Amino acid sequence: MTCVSAHPPEVPERFAAALESLRGRRTRPEVRLVEIPGPTRVAPFSLAVEGEVVADDVEVATGRFVVLHDPAGQEAWHGDFRVVTLVRAQLEAELAAEDLLGDVAWTWVTENLEAADVGATAAGGTVTRVLSRSYGALAATPDAVDLEIRASWTPLDTDLGAHLEVWADLMSTAGGLPPLPDGVTALDVRRRTVGP
What we know:
single chain; 196 residues; alpha+beta; 3 helices; DUF3000; DUF3000 family protein
């Protein structure tokens, strides 16, 4: 993991600890992660990871996980860290008219945070759905519903690896993968991890 900053000062101890907690963190074998440049204007220190969930050689969800750190803290964050996530998935068209779709998708965020028992506060976000209907020469293309979940929260400690797992599970849920039973770890020789 690397630190991205507009002015590369020495990495604060708390940010270094947070980065270390992300290294080698294991996710489901369907989840593929790659580090990308983090934003440089929102906070003095940042890290970003892009992800995709692939099941049966089909991409079923994508997303982004961003860690922001301001050693001075930010009032809106209620702390010195902020995790900002994005998840996108395509759902079956009949879900487009479901009034509770947004509520259900938001419970995926809150339930994943609760199930992981991570310390987090000030969670907020949006759920957006878009129905795509094709016309003319594309009329045979089936309707599609794109779901986008944007969520952010403030971690209460520097174990951000657990927060990365929450986001990976959220992508998997949005992509339609069944949850793994408690105590069961999916085995795959091609496991994806963050960091070297």
